[in-house]
Structures are given as structure tokens and as C-alpha cells.
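idk why but the lab printer keeps eating my pages so im just putting this in chat instead. protein + zinc ion:
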Amino acid sequence: MTDTQTFSADVYAQRLHAAQKAAADKGIDLLLIGTGPDFAYLTGSWVSSHERLTVLVVPQQGNAWIVAPNTDITDIKAAPVDELDVELRGWNDGENPYEFALRGAGDGLGKVALGQSLTADHVLRFQALLPHASYELATYALAELFTRKDEAEIAELRKAGHAIDAVHAQVPQLLQAGRTEAEVAHELEKLILQEHSVIDFVIVGSGPNGANPHHSFSDRVLAEGEPVVVDIGGTLPSGYHSDCTRTYVVGGDISKAPQDFQDAYAVLADAQAAARAAAHPGSTAADIDAITRQAISAAGWGDYFVHRTGHGIGLSTHEEPFIMEGNDLALEEGMAFSIEPGIYLEGKWGMRLEDIVVLTNDGYESLNQAPRDVR
Ligand code: ZN
Ligand code: ZN
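predcted complex ->
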């Protein structure tokens, strides 16, 4: 990523310290974090060395270090890493970066936590050097750190919410009969780029295409009165993401949409509102999912709600906490996640309503304010 913005170095120093402490509390001897969102969260750097190993190593005590190809060291050395007490260890092709990475990590490492972006080629080589260690995902060991956003992160997510709301404000005038989904999508891409530095995704699902939650867009021509699912997201220069879905009707008059769509949308909007109302510290991720699912099932649409209720969001678009059955994670202040139930009637239409919420000490703040009525 180019032209990225970071927080000041002391933010990353604190996070590294907190990661070290969280790992130690869980009996983890070593953290190995590959490049990507977790690496950026802890160091401010979005460096990518592709198949060559770049890894942040956090031992149980003392300063962390970064092992990276010498060709990438200059990029990494930029702010804020240059102000952190983090040693940079460069390696050249032909050298063994895995030995470099483990040098000084201590003997008899028992428990190693791996960042989820480390690929199998790297993991297998670390395992070969540490055959007696046990391995787990750093995502879980550091869950509290990654999922609870601080004020600066919430401010960025709030900005992202405003940015995507501003794009949704333009959607009704773009959805005109006779246009294709692709034409609308290309207009949306331009608008997303006015508000963000990167386009993450654009979904324009009209009529039956709306029934496929993973549809992107096609050359299908829009017709008056047709429901259209518009799910869009982008990345701010800080790396924080937006993600918001609204369902529209071409022409803006819901009374022209099929009657079953109108009935189902009222159910969906109520279910989503009920889940937002229950979004406060003390609820679990599974509780929020159960609320949307029960409301939609009670109205007879349960078989048509085919995905989890939501996902966490931050430096990645999809991360913990996943709002789904079986996730008994207790929600806490500072957690940011989507609430996005949907109903999908194959061959006819789809609908989804998605807001990003962040939990306050006694409730939630919706980071999206775009109108929730079908327009
Ligand atoms: Zn979305
Ligand atoms: Zn989402």
C-alpha cells in the first residue's frame, strides 16, 4: 500500500508491549507474526516481501526484532519502525532467515504462536527447526488486543463509516432502469476512491443476482421496481476499512417491488434493529447472531438467511469477533463489528442490511448512518 498513514511510534511501542504481555500471560514463549494486518497493527508497516520471509519476532522478554530480506529493509526502516526499539535483521538470498529469526529467542521453546498470514512454506521451516514446540494461532492469543479498538482506531473506523455513507447517499440516483449493474458499479468505484485510498469490493446485485451473497456485478440491465443489493467497502490511508450494505429498489418506490420482498424487508429491518439493540458489553457474539436468526425464522424466512450475522472489522475487513453461532466470545467495549442479516430468495431477489457498530461501555455506536429504509 502506498501513502499510508500511521499513528505515532509510542502507539506501536505500547502495542508491542501489550502483545508481549498477553503472550506471556498465556504461557507463549514466542510470537512469529508475518506481514499483513497483524504486522501493521504492531509495527505500523505494511511491507510485503511476497514469498521471502519477513517476520516480526516477539520473545517473552526484551525487545522484539524483525527479520526481512535486505531488499525490503529500507521500506521497513521508515517511520514509525525507526523510532521503535526493534532490531532489524536483514538477510540475503541463499541465507537461512529462519535461523536468523530464532537467534536469541531462547532454548527449549515450548509454545509458539503464529500470525495467521504466515504461509505453510514458512511454518514448515520453523517447525523443522523447533520440532518439539507446540503451535497455535496468535489471533487467539492476542484476541483481546486485536478486537478491542482504542480511541484512535475507533476514530479511523468512524471516518470510514462516514466515507462509505457518503457513497451510499449517491446510490439512489445511480440506480436507473436501463443501466447495467456494471455501469452502476463503475460509478461506485469512482465515488469510493473519492472517499478512500483503495476500493475493497463493490456488489451490485439486482433482481435474482441479489440472491447470491457473493455476486459482484454483471451486465444485467436494471428494471423499474427491482430490488438491488449494494454492498461496498474501501480502505482509508490509515489501513482501516469501511463495509456497508443497503438494499434499494430501482426508481426508489418500494411499493413497486414484489409483495414478498416488501414483507421480508420489514422482517429484516426489525431483526437488524433488534440485534443492534442487544449490542452491548455482556452479550456474546452468538447472542447477537441468535437474535437476527430467531426474528427471521419466526417470520418464516429462516431457511433463506444463509450466512453468519457479522464479522469484526479493523485493519482487515473480516476478522474476529465473528458474529455467529458457536462463538461464545463475550463482547466488550471497543469491539467493532458488522451486523448484516440477509434474506435470499433464489431466482427472485435478495436483501441485506449492514451497519458497522462499535461497543461503548453500555451500548453501541453505529458507524453507519445511511437511511435503512428501502429507497
Ligand atoms: Zn458488506
Ligand atoms: Zn460485512
